[in-house]
């Protein structure tokens, strides 16, 4: 063969049975050979360990999803009815508008801000459908990186949901922490929070959990929210509310929207991420919303145009099934009434489990103060358990939870609450 022929041409000319594609595939693997193994998800790791455990009394308190008193996933009766109504309408599967259906975005904004909201009446809000709460946070934070002209620095409460800083890291958006949880009282550190907020540069973004703080279950009281609102406005900060649990804190969606509505009433331009995973049980439907309160209708229109461009290049259009379920529930007076009862049922069960867990520990004569279990609110509870106590709970009693002592109260039921209480007593008794 002529020496000028390429190696590939020489191989082909020989017409041999050499497995060319196998060799090529091995060479191609070098494109990804330096990709490192990522760390496992903490919660999923707990669930995997729980599944492998064969102990008959094992308990999973790590899962962040509601469970009924039998420990099973709960399908809300109101959601079942909404599914049947949608099925009976024989609806098509065409694309949704880029920002979501207008009837959906109007309904979810009203749920958050109330029907008397001045911003909604004057159309100074910009609301789009998102891929649940995580999608709303990602879209909102990415919008900040592209269009926010103030200090591009996000402040998170200590602690906060693990995805918050991770999204910022992905976007290379600087983020810092402000004091929030007080480990001594197992409550809200108002003084520490106020001091840190006063030191934030003007124009910074401050993330606030609207209700049922994840992971601590600690919410500011109404008068504390009023103090925070005043300071945040004086410092000219941009509040970004994460509201993943509206209705889950107190069982009343209006009560749980107090902070968001207070900030609107007091003239804040704010951002809001909503999710319907928890309060409608639509975990896998990935349905949520992102709202900006923009100050005037023209600005809202400009921002909507830019959000549509971002959505178009990110996922093009939101899904339709989950948003149809939410719309059906929120726009039907009868169905909405039933849904509100469903939400209260879930919240009441969690509140009951908190009471039973606390009384169960105390009846054993435990000398520690467990008042924080019933003072905290929502799905999660910061128990105050130390890492060594958590380790004992898992090894000796087959109770699975995160190392920081956070538990999902939804994982507690009438069948296991006494067992959990006794185990917590044993690992904390001196």
Key terms:
430 residues, alpha/beta, Aspartate Aminotransferase, domain 1, Aspartate Aminotransferase, domain 2, 2 domains, two-stranded parallel sheet, 18 helices, 13 strands
Structure description:
This protein has 430 residues and is α/β, with parallel strands linked by helices. The chain folds into 2 domains: 42-75 and 348-428, Alpha-Beta Complex (Aspartate Aminotransferase, domain 1); 95-331, Aspartate Aminotransferase, domain 2. The protein is built from 18 helices and 13 strands. It has helices at residues 7-14, 20-28, 42-52, 77-88, 102-113, 118-121, 132-147, 163-171, 190-198, 222-234, 253-256, 258-265, 297-314, 321-331, 333-362, 371-375, 387-397, 417-428; strands at residues 59-60, 125-131, 154-158, 175-179, 181-182, 187-188, 205-209, 238-243, 271-275, 287-293, 380-382, 399-400, 406-408. It has a 7-stranded mixed β-sheet with strand order 2-10-9-8-7-3-4. α4 crosses α14, α5 (102-113) packs across α14 (321-331) and α14 crosses α15. The longest helix has 30 residues, at 333-362. The radius of gyration is 25 Å and the shape is globular.
In short:
This protein is an alpha/beta fold.
SSE inventory with pairings:
Blueprint: H1 7-14, H2 20-28, H3 42-52, E1 59-60, H4 77-88, H5 102-113, H6 118-121, E2 125-131, H7 132-147, E3 154-158, H8 163-171, E4 175-179, E5 181-182, E6 187-188, H9 190-198, E7 205-209, H10 222-234, E8 238-243, H11 253-256, H12 258-265, E9 271-275, E10 287-293, H13 297-314, H14 321-331, H15 333-362, H16 371-375, E11 380-382, H17 387-397, E12 399-400, E13 406-408, H18 417-428
Parallel strand pairs: 1-12, 3-4, 3-7, 7-8, 8-9
Antiparallel strand pairs: 2-10, 5-6, 9-10, 11-13
Helix pairs in contact: 4-14, 4-15, 5-14, 7-8, 9-10, 10-12, 14-15, 15-18, 17-18
